[in-house]
Amino acid sequence: MGFSYEDWSGRFYPRSMKSAEWLAWYARHFNAVELDTTFYAAPAPDRVARWAASTPEDFCFSLKTPRGITHDSPLAAGVDPMRQFIDVCRGFGPKLGVILIQFAPSFMANQFRELDQFLSMLPGDVRFAVELRHRSWGTPDTLRMLHDRRCAFVSAEYAARPARVFATAEHLYLRLIGIHHQFPRYGEELIDPTESLTWWRQAIDSALPRVKRVFGFFNNDYAGYAIGTANRFKRMTGLPVREARIVQTPLLFE
After folding, report:
1. Which domains occur in the chain, in start order?
2. Measured between alpha carbons, how far is 220 from 228 in angstroms, rounded to an integer?
3. Which tens digits make up the pLDDT trace of 217-240?
4. pLDDT one-digit tens code per residue, 120-147
5. DSSP notation for 70-106
């Protein structure tokens, strides 16, 4: 989740590397990123073009829907802004992974009809994932709605894992987040996440017959260092890992 962290400089990014070069370096080691910055404002088209140009052909971007659509206004008022945001996202071309639609923890299932109407307006040629964080959404009706709208039901781990992973679309969307601000720094894993990652691997395996593609993202708050945890999970699932080999130039003054 994101790639622009100062704590990764000197640990994952070469210390002398400019922040403008971080995305290209990141894309040499991973093939996807979830952008949180879009939660605060839709990016300008030229910024999308720069991001896309900095990454290889097989790289993909997932973007969080702006909070002005999902958090700050009635959902019905967000239809036109959502269409505009989707148009901006189309600037990624084939590098567009998933558009994440995350709602506030206070967003309850008494707005079921409003959500269904909103999702019915979404185009069919773009992947979407919906994160519903209030427990009132934990019903078969929610899963049926998302299935009918071809939206992935986001499976996320904050303080605890979900009961199970549900496949409601041809893609699976996983967010391993952890407890925010529990670590003083983000340059190394400070807890061992192996037990939890084993559970996630088994959950993915059980869902694979029903999905074509899995998108999974780690937050630094999950174990202290998202890069290390992502590589740990890739090894567990048999995916190739490219370690960052960096040679630091000593600084005269620290």
Report:
1. 6-236 (3.20.20.410)
2. 9
3. 999 999 999 999 999 999 999 999
4. 999 999 999 999 999 999 999 999 999 9
5. HTSS-GGGGHHHHHHHHHHHGGGGGGEEEEEEEPPTT
